[in-house]
Amino acid sequence: EAQVTQNPRYLITVTGKKLTVTCSQNMNHEYMSWYRQDPGLGLRQIYYSMNVEVTDKGDVPEGYKVSRKEKRNFPLILESPSPNQTSLYFCASRGYNGGGYTFGSGTRLTVV
Amino acid sequence: AQSVAQPEDQVNVAEGNPLTVKCTYSVSGNPYLFWYVQYPNRGLQFLLKYITGDNLVKGSYGFEAEFNKSQTSFHLKKPSALVSDSALYFCAVRDIGGRWGSSNTGKLIFGQGTTLQVKP
Q1: Shortest CA distance to B80 belongs to which of B55, B56, B60, B62?
Q2: Is A16 left (phi over 0), alpha (psi -120 to 50) or beta?
Q3: Which residues in chain B have their CB less than 8 angstroms from residue A102's CB?
Q4: Quick check: B93 and B108 in contact, CB under 8 A?
Q5: Which residues of A touch B5 (CB under 8 A)?
Q6: In the 8-state DSSP scheme, what is residue A101?
Q7: Distance separating the N- and C-terminal Cα atoms of chain B
Q8: How far is B87 from chain A (nearest CA, A)?
Q9: Nearest C-alpha of chain B: how many angstroms from A103?
């Protein structure tokens, strides 16, 4: 089944403790992206990647890092999480066929 | 800058009645427009898209959307609402900016979302 897999689904952590949210897709898609969803703000892009080793900042990149060492994986790294990064995070991927993104099921992160 | 607006935070409709969820956009050039739906505790599911061609686009679960270039709108519609349609709906446009300067940057710009409540 074609899908985008995110882990973990839920995470509660403390301020300053580094964490990584993993994202993997099995569709051989070139594009991958991370979004955060906050009430009243919709989804905002954090980072995106057009292909292996090619990444760029989205609209809200502060406090986040990404890497794209392999085509299928696009982890989101929070080096020093803060409470304002409490949010629902989605990973998504898309091929070159002009269609929409396929989204993962989301990761609900709480930073206390 | 490209943007999307969903003017209604919530839309309430009775089951069996037609529904409309509104979306307006602002882009430079031709828009690539999308609708996604999010059910509680689930990810986003693709409903339909407009790239080019017929202004009336048909999508999943009986939904359709009408592209209106003069009004810069892309409203989501369904002739007869179901209780199971109750969810959060997002309109999105693909950004054609980015440092590569092509239409293939892939970034989606979302509206703030509209909660659809269908009552029995």
Answers
A1: B62
A2: left
A3: 46
A4: yes
A5: none
A6: P
A7: 41
A8: 14
A9: 6
Query: Could you report the per-residue pLDDT of B24-73, keeping only the tens digit for each?
Result: 999 877 888 999 999 987 888 999 999 888 899 999 999 999 999 999 99
Listed as own residue / partner, the contacts of B15-19 with beta carbons closer than 8 Å and 24 or more positions apart are B15/B81, B15/B82, B15/B83, B15/B118, B15/B119, B15/B120, B16/B80, B16/B81, B17/B80, B17/B81, B18/B77, B18/B78, B18/B79, B18/B80, B18/B81, B19/B77, B19/B78, B19/B81, B19/B85, B19/B116, B19/B118
Taking the CA of residue A81 and the nearest CA in chain B, the distance in Å comes to 23
Partner-chain residue, chosen from A48, A100, A106, that has the shortest CB–CB distance to B107: A48
B114 in Cβ contact with B88 (< 8 Å)? yes
Residues 6+ apart with CB under 8 A from A110: A11, A12, A13, A86
Do residues B30 and B95 lie in contact, with contact meaning Cβ atoms separated by under 8 Å?
Answer: no
Nearest Cα residue in chain A from B109: A44
Percent of chain B with pLDDT over 90: 70
Whether omega for the bond prior to residue B40 falls within 30 degrees of 0, making it cis, is: no
Rounded to the nearest 10°, the torsion over CA B75, B79, B84, B88 is: 10
